[in-house]
Amino acid sequence: MFTKMILALSVSDDLYDAYGTMDELNTYTKAIERFDADCIKGLPGYSQICYSICVKFFREFDEEIVKQGSYYDVSYCKEAFKTSVLAYHQEAVWRDKNYVPPLKEYLMNGSISSCACLLGLSSILGMGHADTIGACKWAAKEPKAVLAAEKMSRIINDIVGYEEEHSRPHVATSIDCYMKEYGVSKEEAVVKLYEMIEDTWKDINEECLRPTTVGSHNINIFLNLMRVSDVTYKNRDGYTHPDTMKDEIEFLLMDPIPI
């Protein structure tokens, strides 16, 4: 479930980031909001493929949960997916208008487009613990643990992918927003943003240590998402260039440290 969600998000992100015109993206966004297979008829050919993949995956999620003997639906995940796509669309609008928002406004939207909440919900549903519905309600309200994962994932992605993303038309990143708002250099902005990342680690650690309304395994999902982001974007964009992560994958799966 988690893997399929990443695939659906990757396809959607590329559509908004590099391929769709604004008119096409406006139509596609309205179709995602409805999330009805019949909406595919009004979409351009290439985006029909993207749309059908997303609809198909959520149908498969429903079927898989029933096979497991569970009877909760995937509505929390579906709504989070819609919210993520709306955040992608907002970024496309900003790019089209050459708008550089204040940092706070950017991070409110950019944290959502990091999709950490959606990926966490996918994991919660896929794990199928007894407290699944309660955990989904908790995550959907975006408590501090979820916000930490969202913010950290967004900022580290912006920092590491900055040069490559600015080689083509792209929405302003947290670096651009910080530079404009505070009148500093790129290097100074990066230092401040790394300090913000350190604060997100403090937030998630605090959530791991204090009593919460959900089991610790749910908080650990978002902690692990932050760990994955830290490794993936450690001095390179391992998501865009997965070949750069070959050594880490081999160490993890083929030559793990004995415990």
Question: What descriptive keywords fit this protein?
Answer:
mainly alpha, Terpene_synthase-like, Isoprenoid_synthase_dom_sf, 13 helices, single chain, magnesium, 72% helix, 259 residues, 0% strand, lyase
Question: Which SSEs are present, and which pair or pack?
Answer:
Layout: H1 2-19, H2 22-34, H3 45-67, H4 75-96, H5 103-113, H6 116-127, H7 132-140, H8 144-160, H9 162-165, H10 174-182, H11 186-209, H12 216-232, H13 246-253
Helix pairs in contact: 1-3, 1-4, 2-4, 4-5, 4-6, 5-8, 5-10, 6-7, 6-12, 8-11, 8-12, 10-11, 11-12
Please, could you describe this protein's structure?
The chain has 259 residues and is an all-alpha fold. Helices cover 72% and strands 0% of the residues. It is built from 13 helices and no strands. Helix 4 packs across helix 5, helix 4 packs antiparallel against helix 6 and helix 6 crosses helix 12. The longest helix has 24 residues. The two termini are 28 Å apart. The mean pLDDT is 91.
Please give a quick description of this structure.
By secondary structure, this protein is mostly helical.
Oligomer: single chain
Please provide the ordered H/E string of secondary-structure elements: HHHHHHHHHHHHH
Bin the helical content.
Answer: over 70%
Strand content: under 5%
Low-confidence stretches: none
From the spread of the alpha carbons, the general shape counts as globular
Gyration radius (Cα, Å) is 19 Å
| Biggest beta sheet summary | none
User: What's the total helix number?
Assistant: 13
Organism: Heracleum sosnowskyi
Keywords: Lyase, Magnesium, Metal-binding
Pfam families: Terpene_synth_C (PF03936)
GO molecular function, one term: terpene synthase activity
